[in-house]
Amino acid sequence: ALKQFFTNRNCTVLLLDEIQYSREWETEVKLLVDHQPAYRIAATGSASVVHKEKLAESGVGRWITVAVPTLSFYEFVHIGGEPAPELAANTRPKDLFGLNPGEQAGIAAQLRPLLPLFNRYLLVGGFPETARQSDISLCQRLLREDVVERVLKRDMTALFGVRNVNDLEKLFIYLCIHTGGILAHATVANALETSAATVGNHLALLEQANLIYCLPPVRTGGKKTLKARNKYYLVDAALRNAVLLRGEEVLANSDDLGLIVETTVLRHLYAYHYRDTPQIAYWRDAASGREVDIIVRSPAYHLAVEVKYKEKATLEQSGGLAVYCQSEQLKHAYLVTKQDADFG
Asked: Which of 50, 59, 108, 188 could join 63 in a cystine, given CB atoms 3.0 to 4.6 angstroms apart?
């Protein structure tokens, strides 16, 4: 349908890039759509610079918004020209539960050769410019220049009116170190020697600029906690490696590796389910300390995902994943581990 939309010979195609730098662009596009029906317009921007409510009000019935995250691992494999396993196009992770051990082993055998590529994906990330580069240090330098120099120091100042760029940069580095962590604004403010209000404002701006994900906590039954402390993740694990100058040594550090894989899993869940506008959160029982890393739920599905990317990943009956599934009456859940022999 999209191809037909843009190949209509009787229309004029307008390609508008970096539209966030134009004032009142949504009004201008609205007028074009209303008064120039022959126009086909594709507008792209690197930051969410308008409130969703305002955007929805202007664009209802006129345009659709498509989120374009960093490359998925599937796209990373293809853009690099690497051979990919031939799985059925309609295969979904939930289908794995219905396969017999032999069928699961067949899929595992096809996926096993991709493990070295996955390690590389964790290091250079899902950015088209770095996906085809062989020099990891060059990839990381490009990411530092693009994110820290361009986005934090230029775009955030121009688009959001950030006054203290140094505070924003220190917060971003703090998030790189603590990605996937539960953060209290007051604790972060003390560590960075700033105010909790500044931390809260800057976190909201980083989320709006598509640099971080924010996961609120939920109680069993889907209820929100009264005193919410959110978890924050970078949108791409490679940003953490680039900013902190971490190279291939992160693959040998179980703590670092666990953090970047958990970030990568979350990025794929967000990208795959964003059209459904699901609730994406985490669960933690304050009394026992049990936790489930990622919860994705909508009226159509309810997913619980735990990431234990280390040499020996155990699944205890009294662990967070099992307890959450029992309380929510979930028949299936996902445990992401490092050993390919765990598959199934």
From this structure: 59
- The span from the CA of 135 to the CA of 141, in Å, is 10
The span from the CA of 142 to the CA of 162, in Å, is 23
On the 0-12 / 13-18 / 19+ scale of CB atoms within 10 A, 34 is exposed
The residues near 259 (Cβ < 8 Å, ≥ 6 apart) are: 179, 180, 237, 240
3-state secondary structure string across 44-72: CCCCCCCCHHHHHHHHCCCCCCCCCCCCC
Q: What is the largest CA-CA distance in the chain?
A: 65
What CA–CA distance (Å, rounded) separates 209 from 20?
11
Contact 236, 307 (CB under 8 A): no
**What pTM was computed for the model?**
0.85
End-to-end Cα distance, the chain:
37
* Residue with more model confidence, 280 or 227: 280
Rounded to whole angstroms, how far apart are CA atoms 156 and 162? 6
Buried b (16+ CB within 10 A) or exposed e, 139-161: bbebbeebbbeebbbebbeebbe
Most confident range (mean pLDDT) of 13-22, 113-122, 158-167 is: 113-122
Contact 67, 271 (CB under 8 A): yes
Place of tokens 């995250």: 69
Q: How far is CA 163 from the centre of its chain?
A: 27
Quick one: which H or E segment has residue 101?
helix 101-111
Dihedral sign, Cα of residue 273, residue 275, residue 279, residue 280: positive
Print burial letters for 250-278: b (CB count within 10 Å at least 16), e (below 16).
Answer: beeeeebbbbbbbbbbbbebbbebeeeeb
Residue 294: DSSP 8-state: E
- The CB density around residue 94, as the number of other CB atoms within 10 Å, is 11
